[in-house]
């Protein structure tokens, strides 16, 4: 039986969850849009590229250099999807993630852009708007929204071999430097807004600090990476505190140092790196 429209404007129906192989127990939804099969592909259009979202960045020792212009691009590898754990959170592009929209995350494609993704096992294709960073996992080249992966037929198993092809809206190379200054200023204001990158008032307590960045975008990418890779961690536990000139990524707060050190070891064993303990009065 379908339910009334939810906050996303969708009329929902129960989803018979059959899988268990989805990435990091991100979680299949209990309900999906009643008209999910009719949700259209993203419509490619020329958009200003986001300056802040296309700068080089590092996530726990892995360095990435995003493309800064639209140009021919094709890649084959394993596609995954991300859903309930991230639904409603901010993407690297500054948008609010909607797991039922036709979007995707990619480590290096310019943000935003449009790609055709083909499941090479069944030859189904979708067109999605790339507005987020990830996945940061060996062998995985793109994370699709739930709906996009559903249309490609792999939500229940969690991943599938895919081909990714960048779509050129006007068949010419464009850089963000060649677009209007007014459009760029509006986009940079959106992506660099303090509420996007940091909570105003840090909470007192003991934390595990994962990194400190002058570039708030890099801090947000690390936060999203932690949530992707650590299935036991919740969004409420990972903070980006903006304290100019730094954006600190901290996990907590914990009531005692012993609790923080237990999580510190758990994170280090899972991801490597050298997280350290930080105390806020």
TrEMBL record:
Highest taxon above the source species: Bacteria
Statement: the UniProt record of this protein carries the keyword Cell wall biogenesis/degradation: yes
Family: Belongs to the RlpA family.
Enzyme Commission number(s): 4.2.2.-
Gene source species: Fluviibacter phosphoraccumulans
Enzyme category, top tier: lyase
GO biological process: cell wall organization; peptidoglycan metabolic process
Functional note: Lytic transglycosylase with a strong preference for naked glycan strands that lack stem peptides.
Keywords: Cell wall biogenesis/degradation, Lipoprotein, Lyase, Signal
UniProt protein name: Endolytic peptidoglycan transglycosylase RlpA
Gene Ontology MF terms in the entry: lytic endotransglycosylase activity; peptidoglycan binding
């Amino acid at each position: 039986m379908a339910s009334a429209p939810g906050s996303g404007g969708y009329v929902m129906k129960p989803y018979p969850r059959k899988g268990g192989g989805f990435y990091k127990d991100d979680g299949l939804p209990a309900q999906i849009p009643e008209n999910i099969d009719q949700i259209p592909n993203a419509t490619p259009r020329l958009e200003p590229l986001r300056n802040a979202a296309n700068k080089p960045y590092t996530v726990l020792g892995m360095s990435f250099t995003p493309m800064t212009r639209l140009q021919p691009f094709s890649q084959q590898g394993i596609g995954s999807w991300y859903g309930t754990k991230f639904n409603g959170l901010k993407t690297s592009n500054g948008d609010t993630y909607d797991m039922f929209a036709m979007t995707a995350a990619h480590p290096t494609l310019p943000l935003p852009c449009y790609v055709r993704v083909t499941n090479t096992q069944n030859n189904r294709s979708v067109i999605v708007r790339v507005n987020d960073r990830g996945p940061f996992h060996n062998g995985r080249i793109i994370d699709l929204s739930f709906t996009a992966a559903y249309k490609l037929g792999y939500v229940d198993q969690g991943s599938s071999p895919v081909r990714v092809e960048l779509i050129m809206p006007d068949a010419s190379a464009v850089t963000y430097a060649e677009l209007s200054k007014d459009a760029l200023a509006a986009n940079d204001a959106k992506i660099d807004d303090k509420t996007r990158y940091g909570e105003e008032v840090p909470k007192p307590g003991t934390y595990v600090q994962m990194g400190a960045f002058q570039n708030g975008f890099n801090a947000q990418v690390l936060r999203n990476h932690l949530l992707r890779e650590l299935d036991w961690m919740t969004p409420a536990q990972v903070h980006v505190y903006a304290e100019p000139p730094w954006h600190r990524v901290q996990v907590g707060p914990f009531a005692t140092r012993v609790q923080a050190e237990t999580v510190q070891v758990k994170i280090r064993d899972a991801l490597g790196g050298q997280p350290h303990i930080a105390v806020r009065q």
